[in-house]
UniProtKB/TrEMBL annotation:
Catalytic activity: S-methyl-5'-thioadenosine + phosphate = 5-(methylsulfanyl)-alpha-D-ribose 1-phosphate + adenine; adenosine + phosphate = alpha-D-ribose 1-phosphate + adenine; adenosine + H2O + H(+) = inosine + NH4(+); inosine + phosphate = alpha-D-ribose 1-phosphate + hypoxanthine
Protein name in the entry: Purine nucleoside phosphorylase
Source taxon at top rank: Bacteria
GO MF annotations in UniProt: copper ion binding; hydrolase activity; S-methyl-5-thioadenosine phosphorylase activity
Keyword Metal-binding: yes
InterPro entries the record matches: Cu_polyphenol_OxRdtase (IPR003730), Cu_polyphenol_OxRdtase_sf (IPR038371), Cytotoxic_necrot_fac-like_cat (IPR011324)
Family: Belongs to the purine nucleoside phosphorylase YfiH/LACC1 family.
Keyword terms of this UniProt record: Hydrolase, Metal-binding, Transferase, Zinc
Length: 212
């Protein structure tokens, strides 16, 4: 892992940024980075206005979400699985960015590689939880044919709706469209590795930094 991080830094334009990581806990806390931390903070989103520090998220099915207000030079990075998205990690990241000078309507937001609906099977309890909270959430589920009380969940669509309810419009959202489960030659997937009894598996690094 250390070797791969060195390769990432070497591939970036000089001067290469300092990589800043979080101790990701599937929560909804955002940490502001004013100086390189002595240890990764327990958080699932990072925000900074400082150039030269790459905010990094590690994922293997959850969504990496990168956010930037280039005009006001504020950036953020978030790790959003279903739990984090449900508990408000994306809204927390945006609110923290605003507190440090970002403008919500100027944000550019990228959803990176994550597990997509055709590969994301969940159980009936998960379906019932989200639909009980908001009946419109049923739109993010499709029944699994031939498997009682099993559903396919559309995590990116759910996250996009959360962002739209927070005031983000479609033109601000970019989705790479890649599925971690299906792109096995290119991407790691915890669920795929579990199904094949190949755990532990690797992780993708998604990062963003202010240059100069």
């Amino acid at each position: 892992m250390a070797k791969n991080r060195t390769r990432i830094q070497a591939a970036l334009p000089a001067p290469s940024p300092t990589l800043i990581f979080a101790d990701q806990i599937h929560g909804a806390d955002t940490e502001v980075i004013n100086q390189p931390p002595s240890a990764p903070p327990q958080a699932d989103a990072l925000v900074t206005t400082e150039p030269g520090w790459m905010l990094c998220m590690m994922t293997a099915d959850c969504m990496p979400v990168l956010l930037a207000d280039p005009d006001n030079r504020v950036i953020g990075a978030a790790h959003a699985g279903w739990r984090g998205a449900h508990d408000g990690i994306l809204e927390s990241c945006i609110e923290t960015m605003e507190q440090h000078g970002a403008s919500r309507e100027k944000l550019h937001i990228l959803i990176g590689p994550c597990i997509r609906q055709p590969s994301y099977e969940v159980d009936g309890a998960f379906y019932a939880k989200l639909v009980h909270e908001r009946s419109a959430n049923s739109a993010y589920f499709e029944p699994v044919i031939g498997r009682d009380d099993k559903w396919l969940f559309n995590l990116p669509a759910y996250a996009k709706t959360r962002l739209q309810r927070a005031g983000v419009v479609d033109r601000q959202l970019f989705d790479c469209g890649l599925c971690t489960y299906r792109e096995e030659e290119m991407l790691f997937s915890h669920r795929r590795a579990t199904h094949r009894q190949q755990v532990p598996c690797g992780r993708q690094l998604s990062g963003i930094y202010l240059h100069g």
